[in-house]
Sequence to fold (522 residues):
Amino acid sequence: MQTFDLEANGLRALNEKLQAQAQNTNETAWSVVNPRGSHAIAVGLDAPIEVTVNGSTGYYCAGMNQQATVHVKGNVGPGAAENMMSGKVVVEGDASQYAGATGHGGLLVIKGNASSRCGISMKGIDIVVGGNVGHMSAFMAQAGHMVVCGDAGDALGDSIYEAKLFVRGAVKSLGADCVEKEMRTEHIAKLTELLAAAEIDADPNDFKRYGSARQLYNFNIDNAY
Amino acid sequence: MCGIVGLFLKDKALEPKLGTMLTDMLITMSDRGPDSAGIAVYGEDHEGRAKVTLQAVDPDVFNGLAGEIEDECGVAVKLRVIDTHAVLDLPEDKLAQVRATVKSLRPDARVMSAGEVIEIYKEVGLPGEVAKRFDIPQLTGSHGIGHTRMATESAVTTLGAHPFSTGADQCLVHNGSLSNHNSLRRKLAREGVTVETKNDTEVAAAYLTWKMQEGATLGEALEAGIDDLDGFYTFVVGTKDGFGVVRDPIACKPAVMAETDQYVAFGSEYRALVNLPGIEDAKVWEPEPATVYFWTH
Fold:
């Protein structure tokens, strides 16, 4: 286990060190202490390493992640795991706005609540939230899955493409073209798999599925002014 | 951008440290706005006394002012000059008369704040410089709000700096920008409420003052603002005994709050809160959109 004191050594040194790890590195376990709400912690990683951040972070934690597992023992600021490609990011606390935005792959787990615009424009990432998500979550979500064990705020899945949304609690309102859909066997199987990967104990049968009604895909003359 | 910090103390033992804590929090937020910085502090209440904070480009205008006010108004006043600001200490029942007298005696001096306990210091420059100039760390009090500005809606001037105060013991700081401030400014003018600058935030402050003059509580005024103020905002407001926070319904502008038995704290980012006592065990949360949060002593 390598321990890195962010306050003593600075952000640039941390990210240089983590980004320099090769595919076959022996230094696979890293601990970051004194994050103190700093921005851009553990961004741009591309090696199968495990990074534990001991405390809360600021903006853009674990952005652009590939292969790595980043575990945050605290809350994260706006834009956590933005544009993640692969790997895993686990947040023990809450996440601020647009967590997992534009992510292409990997798994983002938020044990607490996520605020507005969670998973905006997601392109293949899987997001599992133990608590609630705020308004405009999964806006224009193209691919991937979002699991919400609590409630969802206003305009869930507005202008959604082909991402699949699972919500256990109440949905305040659905956005344009987002509708409730049937939970088939394959959806229960996928949800079971995601909850297991996120280590969240919940019954897949308690969830409802939401997705695209596919009414915005084609030009509709009746909508023209 | 813009950075906001706020501190509402529940534990009286922390009151001597209010200025130090707020300064530390605000300096952490410096890179959210380099243009100007300001701080409002709610100090000790002396029965029957009031304060007016004045600002002048040339502090020489304060020379002899106390004596001239005494001659004009027939009351004893104390004047403490700090750099470009001066704090007048006067009998509470003479507040309106003294304000009017200052305006006629020293038209170049601006009133930053007036009330029983509020003092406001604000100037162009970084929080660290502004705090040093006005010796903010030595200020004591029960609650306070600080702001560091990245100017968008009006010029970089002392008067464009936050906090804005448009009513007795009231102040407001703002991160965001309002899109209907010109029409609202005209509407308020028709109601007899005038503002001094082209700044959008001052209009928001004047709107809240007007609502409260009409009989609303600060909480009710903030609720009404959600309907009447168009644009994006995180507002942190202070009154003589209260501290409030509200975000617009879209809530793009960041906000983090922390609460313990000793204090309620606000920061634009969590970084601003990390040095507060007991922050590791504090309740930390992000204020919900279009929701009014309010604490009173």
Helices of chain B lie at 18-28, 65-73, 95-105, 127-133, 181-190, 200-213, 218-228. The radius of gyration of chain B is 18 Å.
